[in-house]
Design brief:
With 464 residues, the protein is α/β, with parallel strands linked by helices. The protein has helices at residues 5-11, 18-29, 45-52, 66-78, 120-133, 143-154, 176-186, 243-248, 283-286, 290-295, 310-313, 339-350, 357-360, 412-424, 444-448, and strands at residues 35-39, 58-63, 84-88, 104-108, 160-166, 188-194, 208-214, 221-226, 239-241, 266-267, 272-276, 287-289, 302-306, 326-329, 376-379, 381-382, 388-390, 396-397, 401-406, 433-435, 439-441, 451-452. It starts with a helix and ends in a 12-residue tail after the last strand. Residues 3-12 have low confidence and may be disordered.
Length: 464
Amino acid sequence: MVRPGTRRRSLGAFYTVEGIVTAMASWVLARNPDIIIDVGCGSGRFAAAVRRLGFGGETIAIDIDPLATVMTRANLTVLGHRHATVVHGDLLRLSLADSRRGRTAFIGNPPYVRHHTLRPEAKRWAQKSGDALGVQVSGLSGLHALFVLAIAGLSRPGDLGCLITAAEWLDVGYGSALRTLFAQHLGCVRLDIGDPRTSAFGDAMSTAAIVSWEVGYSDAVSMRETRDLKTLRALTGGRAISRDTLTRSSRWRDLLHPRPHRDGLVPLGTYARVHRGIATGANGFFILSRDEAIIRELGGHVRPCVTRAHQVLSSGGVVRADKLDHVLLEVQDAADHDRALRSYLAEGIRHRVHERYLCEHRNPWWRLGGGPPPPIVATYMARQAPMFATNPDRCRIVNVLHGIHFREEVGEDIATTLVVWLNNHRDTLTGGRTYHGGLRKFEPRELEAILVPPLHELDARRVK
């Protein structure tokens, strides 16, 4: 690579392998476009591919990186493409003549830049563009989402496109705008989704999705999951999903793996609420080893704390306080401030802990809150299904774990039986989000949606 990895990541440049490029280019060319626009062209792989496959019409390649445009010009010159224009510029600022003739096709791999690093003017542009299209754009949208907005604004009836992006927009909140655009505005024709255990990009831990569309298309959408997109030969086949189903769904990946129907099971949220553990804002201050808490004479102000998912994964279904090596500073009232605690809090102020973001927004800064400790704890992000454990000693948990709180008080035997059932059936649990390498993540509401037996049917003596 000409650009070092750090520079390419700042630009969101993760190059697409040849097989995927060829399959996407073939799908586009089969629909006879008159103009092809390679968005975020990078080295010009897509523009070069359509040329190699025989396209001689107008091609526009655009990228904000001047080195990328130089490489694209070189590639297209070698291929003898006489009707190619390479633009050093921003797709979000691109305008196309209303008088352009024929069908325009958009193709490419939009840059993957997280929302944290987008300029304020880019976010303002996104809000304005979303309003013009009648979609609500989340402030958490990354640059690839903004590229879809730009394409939707440039498209006319009959235009088409094929993009490969990180697959997270299929299910997450910020992806709502993209799902609306593809389902209703752009006319999604098919979705090819990579298996979460593989990556379509050589240097990015991200599951990929290829979305193909034709403006005005309103029939069923073909969806399929491909074991390895790198071996992709063509964009064909798949399961037909009705347009209404696609429009109503907020989790498109689940449409490929519908939840099995199990008679008598109900969502966990019927009986319990799920909350993420405590976010301290300064773990190095609020979490102490047991020995340090003793040395600092803070024993009356700390509580045993589960600090790592491994402690649940290896617990055998029960976490116990005497097995934990760390404690959490837990102070509720200023009246509890003895000499040792006052000294420790003063040390925190000297180290400006009170100025940390979360601490600064608490009053007082040292009160963590978090409600009562949960009777059940659960992992929520690992390369395996969630693991559950009872918490009979009511240890605290931090935000690497979820706590399950019953809506009404139940006995420890019911909690134990539910945990046994969940762990026995953990490999059948559906939902959550799966990332590259099989990393599965369940947000609290997603964990509340898993199906469990009604509590009154749980028998502590017989768990199936």
